[in-house]
Amino acid sequence: MDKRLVHSLIDAAAGRTVSDLAVLNAEVVDVYNRTTFRSNVYVKNGYIVGFDSSLKAKETFDAKGKYLIPSLIDAHCHIESSHLSPSEFSDAVVPCGTGTVIADPHEICNVTGLDGMRYMLSASEGIPLSVFLMFPSCVPATPFEHSGAVLNAEEIEQFIGNERVLGLGEMMNYPGVSGADESVLNKLDCAYRRKKNIDGHAPSIFGSALDSYAVAGISTDHECETPEEARDKIRKGMYVMLREGTACRNVLQLLPAVDSRNFSRFLFCTDDRQPQSITEDGHINYGVSLAIRNGLDPLLAISMATLNAALCYKLDDRGAVAPGKRADFFLSSSIEDGIKAEEVFLEGKLVAEYGKIIKKARHTEPVNVSGKMDVKGFSEKSLVLKLKGKHVRVIDIIPGGVVTGNGDAFVNLDKDGNWVHDPDADILKLAVVERHHGTGLSALSLIRGYGMKHGAVATSIAHDSHNIIVIGDNDRDMALAVEKLVEIGGGITMFKDGKELGTHVLEIAGLMTDSALDEVTSTLDSMHTIAEKELGVNEGIDPFMTLSFMALPVIPALKLTDSGLFDVASFGFVDNTID
Question: Cβ(268)–Cβ(242) under 8 Å?
Answer without folding.
Answer: yes
